[in-house]
Amino acid sequence: MATLLPFRDYDEKDVINLFAFSGTLPATKGTLVKVQGGGFKATDELDMLGNVGAAFGNTVSQRYGVLAKVSIAATGETPLGMLLFDVKETDENGEQLKFNPRKASEMGCVVSGQVVPVVTRGTFRYSGALGTPAGGGTAYGTAAGVITAVATGVGGGANIGVGKFLGAADADGFVTLKLDL
């Protein structure tokens, strides 16, 4: 499973905070994502996600979310960027994070429906790169939003270049990546 490590060097102007994640949860930070559907429109209102918990008569307890969505980029699809936070519904004990936003913040994740930060440029320490990364080699996006050193994707399709590796993977499989989308 690919993930970002704490070493990160990016500028906030390279972070897009307009989209919620749409797809199978949990989604891990470091996953490459693409714009889904029509993308962001300035005229979009909030999305009604349904009741926060149980529905009771004569009460309204709606949960709101963002209408514009991103989903995992596949082989041959140009990614918008990379998730900076995990997207989860529950914590390590199975408790729903929508009832405990402070815990979600402490875990460094967002709840589905909320805006997830997507970074388009920067230097990151990345775990889980496929292939054999080499210093100066091109980093590609592949199926399931994972970064690879291999140019050819599943079924012979071309993987899209997303940046450069700044060195080979260390003994733990961690590599330093310069993302540039």
Shape category: elongated
Characterize the biggest β-sheet.
6 strands, antiparallel
Please state the average pLDDT score.
89
Q: How large is the share of residues in beta strands?
A: 35-45%
In what order do the strands lie side by side in the largest sheet?
1-12-16-15-13-14
Low-pLDDT runs of 5+ residues are none
Radius of gyration: 18 Å
Question: What is the number of helical segments per DSSP (H or I, 4+ residues)?
Answer: 1
Distance between the termini: 22 Å
Instruction: Please give the number of β-strands.
Output: 16
Oligomer: single chain
Q: Based on helices, strands and strand pairing, what is the structural class?
A: mainly beta
Question: What's the domain count?
Answer: 1
Helix content: under 10%
Q: What's the SSE pattern?
A: EEEEEEEEEHEEEEEEE
Structure commentary:
Strand 13 and strand 14 form a beta hairpin. The chain is elongated and about 60 Å long. With 181 residues, the protein is mostly beta strands. It has one domain. The longest helix is centred in the middle third of the chain and has 7 residues. Helix content is 4%, strand content 35%. Strands 1-12-16-15-13-14 form a six-stranded antiparallel β-sheet, with no helix packed on it. A six-stranded mixed β-sheet has the order 2-11-8-4-7-3, with no helix packed on it. It has a two-stranded antiparallel sheet with strand order 5-6. The relative contact order is 0.23. It has one helix and 16 strands.
